[in-house]
Amino acid sequence: MALVEREHDVQLLRNLLTATFNGHGKIGLVSGAVASGKTELLRSFADLCTDQGALLLNATATRTDRTVPFAVLRQLLDCLPAPAEPVAELMASGVASDVSRTAAATLLDLSEQAPLVVVVDDVHHADEPSMDCVMRLVNRLRSSRILLVLAESSGDWSVHPAFRIELVRQTQFHRVRLAPLTADGVSEMCSQHLGQDVARHAQEAHRMTGGNRLLVRALIEDHAESGGLPGRADCSSLGESFRQAVLTCLRRSGPDELEAARGLAVLDATGSTHRIAEFLGRGPDALRRPLQSLQTLGIIQDGRFRHRLTRAAVYDDLAPQMLAELHTRAAQLLSDCGGSVTDVADHLVAAKHVSADWAIAVLQRAAEESLAADDEEPAIRYIEFALSVCTGERQRALLRMLLVQIKWRSDPEGAVRHLTPLFEAQREGHLDVEQTAYLLRVLMWHGRVQEATELIKHLSCLRPSANEAPSAVLTGVHNLLRHAYPQFIPHGSGESNHFFDNATTPPGQQAQASAVLSSVLAETAGADERCIRVAERILQSSQLNDEMVESVCWALQTLIYAEQPVLAERWCDALLAEAATRGVVTWQAALSGLRAEIALREGDLVQAERYAVKALTMIGVGGWGVGVGATLGTLLQAVTARGDFESARRYLREAVPAAMFQTRYGLMYLRARGHYYLATDRLQAALADFSYCGELMTLWQLDSPTFVPWRTDAAQVLLRLGDHEQARALTKEQMTHIGSRASRTYGASLRVLAGTASHRGRLSLLKESVEILQASGDRLTLTQALFDLSCAHEGMGEFGKAQMISRRAGRLAKEGGMRRKQDPALACPEEPVMLHPGQTESWSRPVEEATSAADVLTLSERRVAALASLGYTNREISSKLHITVSTVEQHLTKVFRKLRVKRRTDLPVELEFHVASPAC
User: Fold this and answer.
1) What does the alpha-carbon distance between residue 185 and residue 3 come to, in Å, rounded to a whole number?
2) pLDDT per residue over 861-886, tens digit each?
3) For residue 463, what pLDDT is reported?
4) Please, which residues bridge with residue 153 across strands?
5) Residue 114 — left, alpha, or beta (φ > 0 → left; ψ -120 to 50 → alpha)?
């Protein structure tokens, strides 16, 4: 097979051979880096010389030949057709000058008989007596038929500087410089061995090898064995041929190159020339030549390994003990010269054993720095290694606490195994109050009730005296227990919350967030508006980080339970986008769970299901701990409302912690399960779940209808059971607990109350309910109320209105992702009111998607259109808005023209949501 990209070099040697045949002796020096193809070229040329009738004397010097007199000369003489006995006798006598003179004369005599070609490969390793003989021949071959071809490795001729000078000054001297393969040359070489399909990766192979023939050939061999080119994006393994080729190049280059490569492999990206020289204990000038040699070899480029697999070949060849020593030395060097703390930590971890006192502090700082960059993997590696070498109990407790915080970001369930050692460390007094409070939150989250109770007792003993203000940490713990784990509040701790009262200094944001959520859930009088302002201020001033993510979630929950879904959605979407950009898994899961709850309260069942599934998938049910009740409850309620009972049954089979039912999160799960039972006609089971919710909420003083409206939930079951009086009593009781008559919870309560009223009273209550619900933006409850209103009109014999409102409810159901018509609260179960065929599938929006009603209608027109869409007559609209019937008619005419509709039933669904906003 033809030599690749060596045509010019072969032709130059041919010209020298031709001149030699004509009686003009020549000298050729083939120069190139290790593995540049010198030997391959010489062998090809030797075959050419033999074919043309020249007498060939061939020798290859080795590193051991340098100390063996006449080692190279003996190889040359062994190639003679007849033994050169005079020379052999002189070599035995040990007189070097006589040997050189006699050998040169012998070779000159031979050239008279036939052209003589003397080839010495790796001449930089030749012994001095043999080189003396060669130089005697050089001085006498001008008019002879002798061609002397020598091959050297670039940069290694310094062994024989005097001989090199003598060679270069000869007029018959010619140099043949061997360059690395170009990208085209690599492509040609790959094509010869592997075909055109693989040759398309030649550019990548050239970047990896720098055109080094031995490395290219090794890649070809590895590909032939495995079918994958090492170094490609789809191949991460190191081929054995490539690994051996890298090491062969380094060992043949010399000890200086090998040492430099090892130093560079250990220091990797942190290794500048000056730093590598200091690391190896050499001067920068002494290191410059080995680094240049490595670059010529194709091992490095611009002071870095050309490819990660090249570095791996050098690094993996180091013995474990040497590797540990080198990494320890590198860590000390980087620490002394102010290197990056993470680089120092990487070397400490790679050393696998350190005894220096400063190492633990470095590893901890490196973990904190990695955590600040949202890079958990190295942070975990640093702390786990620090734990393996740390002996101080207090220091080990601090390291383990940091490890739990790091693991919590991506794998909360993986942090569980560290909780028992931390609990024991707290018992022994190794944790301060703030660390104990954090451990308590983690223990409670994972349902470790017994250990958490002990910590609560410990912290309750730290309560300040009457004249001392409570610390933010203890205040935060108390409020956390109030809104999340009220079952575990110590007896006699008191329920008053002085968060807003005459504080000389405001508490920390975590305590604030916990306090406002507690106030909203505990129905503190007049707290909603105040809590909304505080929650939004927290969200505006907080950075999303490990310390604040819990506070951010509490602030979002405050907005959700204060019935501010639009505001909560805006903040949640922004925070969720940031968490996704930064790649922190647990943050994304927590915020996705809240986003699912927001979507459910807005009646967007498809989005609620999507976000809830995402939240559960990201960290698993086990990672959610007792908090799984909230997210699983949201998911269960969404699929139940969609009529997907098979999925609901599957989610109910998920194992949940028993401790969950002792927390606020269990209330949300119980409510969702109760609604599944209600939807599947298991009325007694549903009533039991709703009633149990009520008992716990009353006991825990978390009886907020905006959180879990258990009374109206139970009232819906009682209506189905025929107990209208009890249903009415519960509903009215709930309505007295609701602060605002404009809240969605109040609107939903009116819908249930309508189920207990007479026909006329029912119609009035449902209309009021629909008006409130359409303003609140809750599509799910609004759809249910519209179905009920349709039934009420039908019961009154107003079939036109009933059909129009039913059609609107069907359109809302379609948009909200409901697969079945909601059961009306006032309908008898044995006579369900079904939609007319085509009501939910045949409608189409009359206005272009890009144009909403809010864009084309005035405020007055939107108000009239919204009431008309609910079945109000013109006279009823006139009375409600205090305008004339004529004005109503004019507004409707303009609305129909602008929206390009012909009937009231074609009015767009979004009218309900625009009309309620004062900004419209």
Assistant:
1) 10
2) 888 887 887 777 888 888 888 888 88
3) 58
4) 32
5) beta
Q: Which of 564, 495, 575 is nearest to 535 (CA)?
A: 564
Is the CB of residue 786 less than 8 Å from the CB of residue 767? no
User: Integer distance in angstroms from the first to the last C-alpha of the chain?
Assistant: 83
Q: Nearest Cα to 553, choosing from 631, 451, 487? A: 631
CB under 8 Å to 258, separation ≥6 — which residues? 250, 251
Q: Residue holding tokens 């003083």?
A: 701
More confident residue, 799 or 377: 377
- Of the CA atoms within 13 Å of residue 210, those in its CB half-sphere come to 23
Instruction: Please give the pLDDT value at position 156.
Output: 59
Share of the chain above pLDDT 90, in %: 49
As to burial, measured by CB atoms within 10 angstroms (0-12 exposed, 13-18 middle, 19+ buried), residue 59 is: buried
Which residue type occupies 460? S
Please list the residues that pair with 176 across neighbouring strands. 30
**111 touches 24 (CB < 8 A):** no
**pLDDT: is 816 or 381 the higher one?**
381
116-121 sheet: strands from edge to edge? 55-60, 116-121, 146-153, 26-32, 173-177
pLDDT tier for residue 812 given thresholds of 50, 70 and 90:
confident
> Which of 224-238, 437-451, 678-692 shows the lowest mean pLDDT across its residues?
224-238
Please state, in angstroms and rounded to a whole number, the distance separating the CA atoms of residues 399 and 420.
14
**Which residue is it, tokens 């490395």?**
215
User: Do 44 and 3 form a contact (C-beta atoms < 8 A)?
Assistant: yes
How far is the C-alpha of 301 from the C-alpha of 409, rounded, in Å?
38
Q: Residue 813: its pLDDT value, please?
A: 84
For 817-884, where are the alpha helices, taking DSSP H only? 853-856, 859-869, 874-881
How remote is the C-alpha of 9 from its chain's centroid? 52
Going by pLDDT thresholds of 50, 70 and 90, the confidence category of residue 826 is very low
Q: Both tokens of residue 59? A: 């020798």
Across 810-820, average pLDDT: 76
Q: Are 35 and 297 in contact (CB under 8 A)?
A: yes
For residues 339 and 737, give the distance between their C-alpha atoms in angstroms, rounded to a whole number. Answer: 63
Amino acid in position 412: P
> What would the pLDDT profile of 95-122 be if each residue is shown by its tens digit?
677 788 888 888 888 888 899 999 999 9
**What three-state secondary structure class fits 723?**
coil
What does the CA dihedral 267, 273, 274, 276 come to, rounded to 10 degrees? 30
Spatial distance between the Cα atoms of 754 and 269, rounded to a whole number of angstroms: 73
Burial class (CB in 10 A: 0-12, 13-18, 19+), 647: middle
Q: Which two tokens stand for residue 397?
A: 């407790």
Beta bridge partners of 301: 304
Block residue for tokens 């507690």: 518
* One-letter-per-residue 3-state SS of 459-520: HHCCCCCCCCCCCHHHHHHHHHHHHCCHHHCCCCCCCCCCCCCCCCCCCCHHHHHHHHHHHH
pTM of the model: 0.76
**Position 145 pLDDT exceeds 90:** yes
Q: Reduce the secondary structure of 259-273 to three states and give it as a string.
A: HHHHHHHHHHHHCCH
600: closest CA among 704, 660, 671? 671
Whether residue 239 contacts residue 221, with contact meaning beta carbons closer than 8 Å, is answered with yes
The token duo for 727 is 């249903």
Task: Report the interhelical angle of 472-483 vs 433-445 (nearest 10°).
Answer: 10
Strands 26-32 and 116-121: unpaired
**Is residue 20 within 8 Å of 79, Cβ to Cβ?**
no
| Separation between Cα atoms, residue 292 and residue 745, nearest integer Å | 77
* Average predicted confidence (pLDDT) for the chain: 85
- Three state DSSP letters for 388-442: HHCCCHHHHHHHHHHHHHHHHCCCHHHHHHHHHHHHHHHHCCCCCHHHHHHHHHH
Contact 521, 700 (CB under 8 A): no
Alpha carbons 799 and 483: distance in angstroms, whole number: 48
